[in-house]
Each structure stands twice: as structure tokens, then as C-alpha cells.
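cron nightly-structures :: item 1 of 1
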Amino acid sequence: MNRNSILAGLVLLVGIGIAALVLLSGKNVVSETDAFAAPGLEPMTIEEARADFWKLTPALLLVVYDAFGQTEEDAIYDTLSSVTHGDALEYLYLERVGAMAGGGLEEADQTIHEIKLLNTRVTRDGGALAIAASWQVIGTVGHAEHLHVRGNTYSADLTVLPVEGAWRIADFALLEVNRDTAGETFLAPPTN
């Protein structure tokens, strides 16, 4: 083989490699007009999700809290995987299962009444949204024959992006939990 043949072969391999990268990366490209599902909301494009993050963020978080109210590991995972992905799915799943191992909820005894966004900022990075969020969760937690009203406040950095046709939390970094606004105790209503 002469030097020109080797050089031509290398140029061909590099060209094939570049073409493969372009084709593979094209599969993950999100168009500005593509709309993605969100729980309880109409599908949203990237720009609509950025503009309406104040709707999207609580909608995703509400499903996370629903998962945390589950007591079976499969139900926890399946519910979380509908709105989370990757590192966030692993982190939140392990948080919930860890709480169960530590004597956490053994029965479905929590009800979320409202998720209220407080101080929140969003920036867009391509198809992903970086959301620095603070929110208050108002709900009740039951123990035996009484209920506690809770109004805990959380702060976290979230990365939200479209995965498999739906908006999902791909990164979740909890920054602060404030339980100072925990509510009062009252008797649970009678059950059948």
C-alpha cells in the first residue's frame, strides 16, 4: 500500500464518522415547534414551557409528591418515572425508599392540597430549562386517629427537559427544607 491509499482510507473513515455523528445527533434534536406532554396540561413547546414554567413546575412536582405517597416500590418507581428521568429519578426514588426503610410512611396517609411557587427563576439552555425554584407544599399527614396540617417550604435547582415525548425533571438538587410552618393537629373525620 502506498501513502496516498492510506491517506484516502483515513479521509473516508473520518468522513463516515462525521456523517454518523450528524445522523445520530439529529435523532436527539428537538424542534422549536415540537410540543411535549405535561401532567394535567396541554402539550408545550420549549418556549411555551419556559414562559409557563409557573404551571409546568407544580404539575411535575405534584406527581413527585403523589409518588412519595405510594407505599409499594413498583408504584413509587412507575409514578416517579412518568415525570423524572436519569439522576433525578434515581435520587428521588432512593429518597422515598430510604424513608420507608427508616420507618417512613407505611400507609398512604398524606394528601397534598396545594403546591405554591414562591421565588422562582428559569433560564433556557437549548431544549432544557434550568429552574431555581422555591415552593410551599400545603397538605395533611395522618397518624392513627389525627391529622397534621403541613406547610413546608422547599428550595431546589431543577433541570426540566423533554424525554420520550414528555416534560421530565432530569436533575433535582434539594437546597433547603423549612418546616417552620407546620400546622396544627385536629381529629380525623370518621371513616366507614
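cron nightly-structures :: done
The mean pLDDT is 79.
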